[in-house]
Write a structure and sequence with these properties.
Blueprint: H1 3-8, H2 14-20, H3 26-36, E1 44-48, H4 54-61, E2 65-69, H5 73-82, E3 88-89, E4 103-109, H6 117-127, E5 128-141, H7 146-159, H8 171-177, E6 184-197, H9 198-205, H10 209-212, H11 216-233, E7 238-251
Parallel strand pairs: 1-2, 1-4, 2-3, 4-5
Antiparallel strand pairs: 5-7, 6-7
Helix pairs in contact: 2-9
């Protein structure tokens, strides 16, 4: 299964993605402002790989002049429905449909892994103004929470993927893995939690690309067993999800 196929799989689950995916904490955007050296209010921001507009809406709420860039037709349609006052254009990080020197900030929420950094970094620098910044972030697995770590391992086994290392890369390795070597990069990490119904938690899990490319029977088999397992452990069919938000902000040297 190619990365392109996995990226395109989100189009078949756009509504599920919009309804179940977690958001991001306010302190993330505080950190972006601090590390980028400018307020979001009034800034021209391109949210790349915007999906259904989860991060786009939060940037707009900070009074950023935001435009959403999204390659998937169904995901872009969800974004337009949720945010009718925000421009949404089709495109991806490897070939941005934006003018040179036009943006103060380019953001990639959960979407940098779908780019080729060798192409995406020069594209971002082309579109950014001279004093602009790139902000990349992910909701990552909180491996210090035992049940979340165990669930992550079950998901990897079921989907036939490699579990992620439980030891996180240091700053230098994170910058290298992201393909940002040669830029000035700062990193911040912060915890975020939400409490959701069990159904929302399971829908969130199966909105991930590793599940979306499985057969319906394989997805169903996991859901039945995981629901049984969690219902035995949970007192009231609610789940407290914990994330470690990992942020990289890059500027020109």
């Amino acid at each position: 299964m190619t990365a392109s196929s996995r990226a395109e799989s989100f189009n078949g689950a756009a509504a599920q993605y919009a309804a179940s995916r977690p958001s991001y904490p306010p302190q993330l955007f505080d950190a972006i402002e601090e590390l980028a050296g400018r307020p979001l209010a009034g800034a021209r921001v391109a949210d790349v790989g915007a999906g259904t507009g989860i991060s786009t809406a939060l940037l707009r709420a900070r009074d950023a002049r935001v435009i959403a860039v999204e390659p998937g037709e169904a995901m872009a349609a969800e974004c337009r429905r949720a945010l009718p006052d925000v421009p949404v254009v089709r495109g991806d990080g490897n070939a941005l449909p934006l003018a040179d020197d036009s943006q103060d900030l380019i953001t990639y929420a959960q979407s940098w892994q779908w780019t080729d950094p060798a192409r995406a970094v020069p594209e971002a620098l082309r579109v950014l103004r001279r004093d602009g910044a790139v902000a990349i972030w992910w909701n990552t697995t909180a491996f210090d929470v035992p049940w979340i770590r165990a669930q992550h391992e079950r998901i990897a086994r079921h989907c036939g993927t490699e579990p992620k290392p439980t030891v996180r890369p240091d700053d230098g390795e994170a910058i290298r893995l992201a393909g940002l070597t040669g830029l000035r990069v700062a990193r911040r990490q912060m915890r975020s939690t939400r409490v959701v119904p069990l159904d929302t938690h399971l829908a969130n899990i199966t909105s991930r690309s590793a599940f979306l490319v499985l057969s319906e029977a394989r997805r169903h088999a996991f859901l039945v067993e995981e629901r049984r397992r969690l219902q035995e452990a949970l007192p009231d069919d609610t789940v407290e999800e914990t994330y470690l938000v990992d942020l990289l902000v890059a500027t020109r040297p």
